[in-house]
Design a protein that fits this description.
The protein is built from 16 helices and 15 strands. With about 375 residues, the chain is α/β, with parallel strands linked by helices. Strand 3 and strand 4 form a beta hairpin. The relative contact order is 0.12.
């Protein structure tokens, strides 16, 4: 009688991506996190053991490219392909060849675009059943961050898609010039990733970094308001980069400093009326096919007219979306559709135009002075963080 129950897949495993440009301090942070009891039953996936100074934590080689750490967690290297590595780890876990891990932390290379890693667990038929994206943690060097963002578009993307941003080396901002640079960097990050929570390295604990997902650190109750952080789009997320240039603190190179930043726009779509599921599906498909590469991150909660009491949670990265899923009920008193977009090389008006064309629903007037950049209109895209 219990056979069908036993064949049901286990609950998805929380999956966190740790990224940041070269020299930002990922290894230092990883060392500290691995001493946290919250990660004692985690699996840490890195590119090469030799690239990460964790030797003092190693105690035992399990098999192949997998080690047991003194903290109790497992550590393995990416064997050619992240999919192969994760599938192999799951097989060993399911077969009892390694201790069961309850979460996964993947560290990218400093030059990496995090999107392919996110695509891996959001789109792969097996991995999207076994893992649940918990969030993207991006490290930014407080001393060299401005120069890095100036020179490398990858660093800008790493910051733009983040759920949590960790400012490393803030203790070195000990001169007036460096302190002023840190103020500018914070403002720049707030414009690039208005929905991200920004922490300094000493506060970057497992509890503060691994709670970025829809279901929070304990994996139980959905916290949509915290996950979306849509209010930040109105109050700090001015995708209006002319405004950012104007607030250049007298630096003549402000336009050059933001040449990569100006490609990023963050805004929120809001709709009061439940949307027919068919209209929503068409809108999603058109948005993905026309503007997929420009949508760095999309996440939201959507009211559909077929069952308005049970909203749909969506989550997408570029053209790849996690399958949408229904919540049993609205998590709070706000029953509006709210979808947060992080766009690159795409004006929000294009998304707004598609929304109006396929839904016929009006844009919610937010009376924001910067409405042209982050206009909270009505809902948009699909995918899930289930």
């Amino acid at each position: 009688m219990n056979a069908p129950e036993s064949r049901r897949p286990p609950p998805p495993i929380p999956f966190t991506v740790l990224t940041g440009f070269l020299g930002a301090g990922k290894t230092t942070l990883l060392n500290r996190l691995l001493r946290d009891p919250a990660l004692s039953d985690a699996l840490v996936v890195i590119n090469e053991f030799g690239d990460v100074g964790l030797d003092h934590l190693f105690v035992e080689k399990v098999e192949g490219d997998m080690l047991t750490m003194s903290s109790g967690c497992l550590c393995c290297t990416i064997r050619g392909d992240l999919i192969d590595t994760l599938e192999d780890a799951l097989r060993k876990r399911d077969n009892g060849r390694i201790a069961p891990f309850s979460r996964v932390l993947v560290e990218t290379t400093g030059l990496a675009d995090p999107a392919p890693v996110l695509h891996t667990i959001m789109h792969h038929p097996y991995l999207m059943l076994r893992f649940r994206l918990q969030g993207v943690v991006t490290l930014v060097d407080a001393i060299n961050g401005e120069g890095t963002l100036d020179a490398h578009e990858e660093a800008v993307k790493q910051a733009a898609v983040a759920d949590r941003i960790v400012l490393s080396k803030t203790d070195l901002a000990d001169t007036p010039e460096r302190a002023a640079a840190l103020v500018r960097l914070r403002a720049r990050i707030a414009a690039l990733a208005p929905g991200a929570k920004v922490l300094e390295a000493p506060d970057a604990t497992a509890a503060n970094l691994l709670d970025a997902g829809l279901f929070g650190f304990d994996g139980k109750l959905p916290d949509v308001a915290r996950w979306l952080n849509a209010e930040a789009m109105a109050h700090g997320g001015h995708g209006d980069h002319d405004h950012a240039h104007g607030n250049s603190h007298g630096h003549a190179h402000a336009h050059d400093r933001n040449r990569h930043d100006a490609r990023i726009r963050a805004f929120c779509l809001v709709s009061d009326a439940p949307l027919p599921a068919s209209s929503f599906d068409v809108f999603i498909e058109m948005l993905r096919s026309i503007h997929g590469p420009s949508m760095l991150r999309v996440k939201g909660i959507v009211a559909l007219s077929d069952d308005p009491a049970r909203p749909v949670v969506i989550h997408g990265v570029q053209h790849v979306f996690h399958p949408p899923a229904r919540l049993e009920r609205w998590p709070d008193d706000d029953h509006r559709t709210r979808i947060v977009f992080i766009l690159r090389d795409l004006d929000p008006s294009h998304v707004q135009g598609l929304w109006g064309a396929f839904t016929g629903q009006p844009v919610v007037d937010t009376a924001d002075a910067h409405a042209h950049a982050h206009n909270p209109l009505a809902p948009g895209v699909g995918g899930l963080l289930a």
